[in-house]
Amino acid sequence: MVTAEVFLKVFPSGWTWGVLAGVEEVTHLLEGLPVDVDAFAEGALFATHEPVLTLRGRYVDWAHYETALLGLLCQASGIATKAARCKKAAEGRPVISFGARRMHPALAPMIERNAFVGGCDGVAVVKSAELIHEDPVGTMPHALVLLFGDTVAAAKAFHECVDPKVKRVILIDTFNDEKFEALRVAEALGGDLFGVRVDTPASRRGNLLQILREVRWELDLRGFDRVKLFVSGGLDEAEILTVNPAADAYGVGTAISNAPVMNFSLDIVEIDGKPLAKRGKLSGRKMVYRCPSCGADQVLPEPSAAPACPCGASMAPLLLPLLRAGRPARPLPSTQQLRAAVLEQMGRVSL
Ligand SMILES: [Zn+2]
């Protein structure tokens, strides 16, 4: 009988926190095996050197699932964390996941589910949205503007034909200057125009914040102050922070879908009740405790009692039963519940 644990030694890209994701799929992967599994809640923040999942059983009963188990956690957690970073950078503005087109289609539902869990407000792929019980989100394509040969003609056609429940967000960077195109579509659609999308190509971009400020100024001056500015095109959390002063919403693609993976490893820490681990790894079963008040964490050898936090509050265990003898030991939250839990924790961390 062995105990093994999943933990991370170093965050990618200089990150200092992660959002654990992929737990639901791990539950399904290990369900039915003669193993006991404890894990953090999906969506919980984690730090390096904290076991986020522990597994007890005969090695031969679960060893061949190790690669799949790690693959499920590593990529999902990387995507959820990157999405959470973008959402935090956006300071309350909506962030839509647009990056499925950069990855193999078979991965799109996984990518978008975890982008949503990490805090994205919507996903673009129809199937992905269906699987998480959300309506897909998008805008008109550049192709529509090209086929009509004019931004306003495309905007009018879109407005005439598309379901009224879809917000009218018109692309304004296809042919001409963003400022003048924004004014043309605002005058053409009037109060029906919800927003304009600035997807300016990198070769024309110059100072994106200044372009947005100029569009905002000209719209406001003519009474179109309710028209939102939706920004997309190669954005990440750093650029979001730069353009926040003039942007109202974001579409983020490659930065989220191609997020760095979390290099979780799975190591044996105890064999037949005796602590034993390879070099570079702390042996023995452990528990991670978190302070509900200040968010501080502590890792203690098992068995242990919940410690008191230096801040005065009593800490709570984070590794809770996920499977007992192969049976699910707790309900699996909806993606909406997971997303809400991630957003609730974002106040405790910084970029
Ligand atoms: Zn505390």
Beginning-to-end CA distance, first to last residue: 41 Å
Residue fraction in strands: 15-25%
Residue windows where pLDDT falls under 50 for at least 5 positions: none
Q: What's the helical proportion of residues?
A: 25-40%
What does the radius of gyration come to? 24 Å
Bound molecules: zinc ion
Count of extended strands: 18
Q: Per CATH, which architecture of the largest domain? A: Alpha-Beta Barrel
Provide mean pLDDT, rounded. 97
Structural notes for this entry:
- The protein is an alpha/beta fold.
- The protein has two domains: 2-79 and 260-348, nicotinate phosphoribosyltransferase (Alpha-Beta Barrel), CATH 3.20.140; 138-249, Alpha-Beta Barrel (TIM Barrel), CATH 3.20.20.70.
- Helix content is 35%, strand content 20%.
- The chain has 13 helices and 18 strands.
- The chain has helices at 23-30, 59-62, 66-89, 108-117, 126-131, 142-148, 151-161, 178-189, 202-205, 208-221, 237-243, 254-257, 335-345; strands at 2-8, 18-19, 36-39, 45-46, 53-57, 95-97, 122-123, 169-171, 195-198, 228-232, 249-252, 264-271, 274-275, 286-290, 297-301, 316-317, 320-324, 327-328.
- The strands form four sheets. It has a seven-stranded antiparallel β-sheet with strand order 13-12-1-5-3-17-18. A six-stranded parallel β-sheet has the order 7-6-11-10-9-8.
- Helix 3 crosses helix 4, helix 3 runs parallel beside helix 11 and helix 7 (151-161) runs parallel beside helix 8.
- The chain is elongated and about 75 Å long.
- Bound molecules: zinc ion.
- Zinc ion binds next to loops.
- Residues 291, 293-294, 296, 309, 311, 313 line the site of zinc ion.
